[in-house]
Structures are given as structure tokens and as C-alpha cells.
């Protein structure tokens, strides 16, 4: 049973499913998103993001028809409400259970490590994107056991009308190939970014990460200091001072994994018995937690840790936590021949966890540009111009702030007769008639901290627009 992440199944039915329409003259901005000046890593190489290819990539990412049985998409294991990771320990494909946990894809572009999968068997993101499609368990176009290979998928896609339009729009002709699919999928994945966290707000106000952030609590700044500073070792692997050395492998401000990282001491496979002696690649540490402080699924390549405290305890005493003598851990987790024993106090553990929670943003969970473009029937229509049906700008209400503490300020309500606020269980928590007002102030101070949908309804009781917000 899949655990609920930031949003439940019914929540996704309400909002994650798009309108089922893509207007080619009204694309989302993927190519020119704001990136903080202190972010310097970028593994784009020569596959520069364009709105056209990223839009095609979004459709490919969410399309279940790319699986042999039409049941699984990339988004099945990389869910927006979990920072594009999986809430299960191991992921479920069309034809069984995978052997490892699906890592979060957020900020995949901003990493020194370009290789993918836990054992880094894909040399680039482009190469990675179509490997699940060709996996016998995940999406089925393996060319094994009598199943068709990816050429069978391409033949299938050639019979789908919207791909004829989207490929011609993106590439200038409708020719479909694995390489073109890889380019588009990689562009969409690289567009998924998260730079609106409390960490980013603090970092913008200082010249260096080592300076205390003015928007942090004392505990959060203490955790940041511990994270950034290297360990001072005494005898053997015992820490006697300094920090805890996390930045040695997860350097700020990207918090991605070092390109030369090795095994971190977690060497059990997901089944708890087999041994993985590979590199155990990590995603960025950004958005480990969702905006309401819950983990975005289990941690490590085997998904065996479902509590951040388990991760802290593992690094606190690697050999003991692993339970298996291990001589292949990364040298940065050792002092000579000895694996590290950090001897962290409870206060230090709490501080590091508090700091990690500051790395969580909001936009990656709520922005429609990264959401499912298909409607609730799994259909999509690609139109050349938005004026062929309606003026989109007249149907989009505006609200702020997001996240919300107590009041939501709404405007551009010209065509909206009623505002509904819906919780993650699909319950309407509040309905407010606009009474022809174009602006509203809605008090949500009594709502529980969670994610909600704010929905506009017209006079005919039809939904005009819906957007997500986070209540803190």
C-alpha cells in the first residue's frame, strides 16, 4: 500500500490532474526560470532547456501509454507531492516491484554528479530517462520475454495524435526517436527546481554560508554550522570537536552529492539481505521534507530508513548502524582505517534536523508547470492557440501569500462566483461567495498545517481554476 505523501489520491484527482489541454501559444516558462546567483553547478551540457521541448517532456513524463500495459508513467515513481520521489520503500512498476528506492528528481540539474541510478549505471540524465521505459518490470518495453523493445513503443506513439503535433512543434518535424524522447524528458526533469526555501531566503542576505542567517533560529544556525564544518578526529574514528562533516559530500548551496562519492556504509539491498557494494548515489538534500515537515518518503537507495533520526544515527556510528563490517566506505566518512564515530549529543542531532528542514521550498509542490497535464480520464488535447476556446488570462484568479499563515488575499475574481477551499481528503473546508467582488480576504488561521486546494467556481457551478497552497 502506497503511503500518502503531501497529497492524497483524492487530492491528486482534484488538482494534480490538469485541464487536459495544452495551448502551444501559452507555454509555461521552463527556459528562463530564476536561479539564485550563488548556485553555480549545472549539468545541462548542450541540452539547453526550451519551453517547447520541456512541454513535450512534461507530457512524456506523465503519459502512462509509454508503458506496455498503459498503467505506469515516470510520474508513478516520481511524484510531485514528494519532490518527485516515491513514498514507498521500493517502487512498483507495471510488472512487479523494483529493487531499489526511486530517488527524488528535484534540482537534478544542479549537481556535480551527472550519473544516475543508485549504482550510477547511467552516465547522463538523458541516458537515464528511457532506461525505466525499457525495464521489464518498470514499464515493459524491454525486448525480452517476447515483449517489444522501444521501437515498439515508438510505433505506438506514432499512432497517438498529440505526439505528432508536439514533436513537430518541438523539433520542426514529427519524427519520433529515442534520442528525441531523451532530450525532451531530460529538459523537463532539469526544469524541476526548488530555490524558495528558508535557506535560500537567508542565503540571499549574506555573502557566505558560514555566516549566521538572520532568518534562522539559534538551533537552525547551530545545525548549519555543524553541517558545514569538518570533523575533528581524536584517536581512531572518534570525533572530539568541529562539525560533523556533511558538506564534505553534500556541499552547500546545492547540497547535491559529490561526483567522486563512494559507498556511505548502507550496503544492504532493499530486501534487507543482499549486499550492495556500489556507490549508492544520493539525490540533493533539498526537499527531504515537505512543507509541513514530513519526510518525502523513505531515505537511502534501499529505502530502509523511514525516519531522519535513523539517518543521523547511521552517520553518528557507521559501523554499528550498518551492522556489517565494511571497509569500502567513502574516505570522508573515516579517519584512516577507522569508520567515524561522531558522538553527537541530542542537542546536536536536533539542530542538524532543524537545519535540514530549512532546505524545503513550496513552489516545487504547487506549481502547475510540473503537474500532470492529462485530465482525470487520462486524455489530453494539444491546441495551437488559446483563443480557439477561451481567454486563459480571464479565468486565472490570483492569491497570496503561499505559504499562508493566517489570511489569503485574492484578486482577479471577475468570473468567479464562489471560492472553495478543499483539504487533502477532498473535503470542502470553506465556501465563500464572492458577491461580485473582485478581491477577497479569507481567514484560514484555524486550519491545520497542511496542503489545500483553492478552487474558483463560476455562476454555472463549473470549476474555472484551482491552485494549491500550503498552510503553515
Explain what this protein looks like in three dimensions:
The chain has 472 residues and is α+β, with helices and mostly antiparallel strands. It folds into 3 domains: 9-194 and 368-383, Cytochrome c-like domain (Cytochrome Bc1 Complex, Chain D, domain 2, Orthogonal Bundle); 198-357, Cytochrome Bc1 Complex, Chain D, domain 2 (Orthogonal Bundle); 390-471, Immunoglobulin-like (Sandwich). It has helices at 9-16, 51-62, 74-77, 125-129, 150-157, 161-171, 178-191, 198-204, 218-228, 308-316, 318-322, 346-357, 363-366; strands spanning 21-23, 92-93, 96-97, 231-233, 239-242, 334-335, 338-339, 381-383, 398-400, 407-411, 418-422, 428-433, 440-443, 450-457, 463-471. Strands 12-11-14-15 form a 4-stranded antiparallel β-sheet, covered by helices on one side. A hairpin with a 2-residue loop joins strand 2 (92-93) and strand 3. Helix 9 (218-228) crosses helix 12 (346-357). It is globular, with a radius of gyration of 23 Å. The two termini are 28 Å apart. Residues 1-17 and 388-395 have low confidence and may be disordered.
